[in-house]
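agent> step 3/5: call structure_predict on target 'CAP domain-containing protein' (Lacibacter luteus).
agent> reason: downstream docking stage needs a structural representation; sequence fetched in step 2, passing through unchanged.
tool.input:
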Amino acid sequence: MFHVKRVLLLACFFLFSSLSFSQGVLTLKDKPFAYKAVVDSSLLKSLNASSSYKSLSPVEQESVYWLNYFRQNPKRFWNTVMREFLLQFPEAKSSYTGSLEADILKAPQSLSIVLPDSGLFAMATLHAFDLKKRNGVISHVSSSGKTFVQRIHAAGKYTCGAENIFNGSYNGLEALIALLIDHAVPDKGHRVNILDPKFQLIGLSFIQLSSGKGILVQDFACR
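tool.output (status=ok):
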């Protein structure tokens, strides 16, 4: 079970040959989404082998699990989780969910899982707490003026990277669904990041605000 909050804010940043920033808002009814998840024990075993994963909070572990559950088989996720979500929240249906289905159908049958990386987790945690101090504002620039590019270079040696930021329901599956739908984000940058086969590493931080909502920072990278 998780609750859908009325306003979900999203922002993403890319570090490739060009740089871009996108932000959107998804508005839904405030009611529970009843979904009985079947645990992928093989995936969970792989994740639990990482000390970085085991050090996370339950909601952060949930976020990493669902992200990789999706990447292992995007079509399975669409046919189970997303179809049920859209049945319970028909107001979420739009050209964005239509394009999500199309993108998933075009995607590889399976993407590699993104492995927990201690440098990226430290980077995401610092930024998430910085955003919390600023009342949950969505920004890829820290309060000290450091850009995403500067932050990821300081975190470690990575050949590519990207960052998603979510402000909404304090739930890993809810956050993933919102980032995949990418409502009102013309370039669908959050979805692009999640579906990108080049990414091999993940670091994230999901912390709760005084309002009860959560702020999630996802940092992706290549070795």
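agent> step 4/5: record observation. The CA atoms of residues 90 and 129 lie 34 Å apart.
agent> proceeding.
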